[in-house]
Design a protein that fits this description.
eight-stranded parallel beta barrel, TIM Barrel, globular, four-stranded antiparallel beta sheet, binds manganese (II) ion
């Protein structure tokens, strides 16, 4: 396991590489070319410049999150094959620069969906939150407007203003796309990219849909163990793997997170570990990472990763906004640093117990 932090690049992030380097135990970043539109080609020079920026700060690139998938690929539109050709060339360029992990998602229209970006908790911290009744009452085309006021001026991943300006057309593109069709298009994409992934040993790690159910009538497929196993079987190659995001799979309380980790052994290439606090099944907020602050048993999640031999990067996912920080919601420095430290502490304890031959179960 390697502890990492997500980094959006110097033009977009309020957190610096120098700050990330001072978090104990964090040796790598998960980063991206944030200005790229889905479907666009990443050149080798652009990738090398990003790599040099990260390495100059004494860190390294542990993986890319994300090389986004265009809507044409998701719906199987006329530009699909051109966008896949660009994707393949991007993977080749990443491979040549010695980058071997790519996180992506296959969610229609919106990436993660939250109804509040700054819900105030009793301790004064603010967090992202989701309320199903609020979603049900909302016109989907107004979704972006309804939350963007609390974004602290940041461009949020998957909510690029360029795309959101055309949200009506985006919904129209998906009018005939049900879960089966979306699944077929995912398999089509994966089959096309597997040869280049094999050639350069690039592990593809699909991020789950968040929340893990259909929102605004749009199909969502990466939501539970059955669907992921089906996807892995359809393209049975170790390079076709997953990002295990506890906070996304965990939105559905029927997903048993440690059990899922064990079932996906060997195919989890990247992990996002965070907690959620449920106030009711349709209302949750992104609490601190600590088990007692939320609903999940973080020790059991880390233990399942440890015991299945997980050796990829982990990052704390969204953090709370604390200590007066102003940053992209979920992506401030302070609470993610606390999260990384806590997760590292759990891992150290599990590892030491295992090496002493002591049972890791308390
Ligand atoms: C992330 C996702 O911020 C988040 O919730 O976990 O935006 C994630 O980066 C993408 O879905 C991956 O493509
Ligand atoms: Mn995540």
């Amino acid at each position: 396991m390697e502890m990492t932090l997500r980094y959006y690049g110097k033009d977009y992030d309020t957190v610096t590489l120098q700050q990330i380097r001072q978090i104990p135990g964090v040796t790598g970043v998960i980063t991206t070319l944030y200005s790229k539109q889905p479907g666009e080609l990443w050149t080798r020079e652009e990738i090398r410049a990003l790599k040099e920026e990260v390495e100059a700060a004494g860190l390294h690139i542990s993986g890319i999150e994300s090389v986004n998938i265009s809507d044409a690929i998701k719906v199987g539109g006329p530009e699909r094959d051109q966008h896949i050709a660009n994707y393949i060339e991007t993977l080749e360029n990443l491979g040549k620069e010695d980058i071997h992990l790519v996180c992506y998602n296959f969610m229609p229209v919106f990436d993660w969906t939250r109804t509040e970006l700054a819900r105030v908790r009793p301790d004064g911290s603010t967090v992202l939150a989701y309320n199903q009744a609020a979603v049900d009452a909302l016109d989907p085309e107004k979704m972006f407007e309804s939350i963007s006021g609390d974004s602290n001026g940041a461009i949020m991943p998957g909510w690029e203003p360029e795309r959101m300006a055309h949200v009506k057309e985006l919904f129209e593109m998906y009018a005939d796309i049900d879960s089966e069709k979306l699944f077929e298009n995912l398999v089509y994409f994966l089959k096309k990219i597997m040869p280049v992934c094999n050639e350069y040993d690039i592990r593809m790690a699909i991020h789950p849909d968040d929340p893990a159910w259909s929102v605004f009538g749009l199909p969502r497929i990466i939501i539970n163990k059955e669907n992921i196993l089906r996807m892995m079987k359809a393209v049975d190659d170790v390079h076709n793997g997953v990002t295990f995001c506890s906070g996304s799979y965990g939105t559905n309380l029927e997903n048993d997170l440690p059990e899922m980790i064990r079932a996906l052994k060997g195919r989890i290439h990247f992990a996002h570990v965070r907690n959620l606090k449920f106030n009711s099944p349709g209302d949750f907020e992104e609490s601190a990472h600590l088990s007692s602050d939320g609903t999940f048993d973080m020790y059991e999640i880390m233990r399942a990763l440890y015991e299945t031999g997980f050796d990829g990067p982990i990052r704390p996912d969204h953090g709370r906004m604390i200590w007066g920080e102003k940053a992209m919601p979920g992506y401030g420095l302070y609470d993610r640093a606390l999260g990384a430290t806590y997760l590292n502490g759990l891992w150290e304890a599990i590892d030491k117990a295992a090496h002493r031959g002591a049972p890791s179960q308390p």
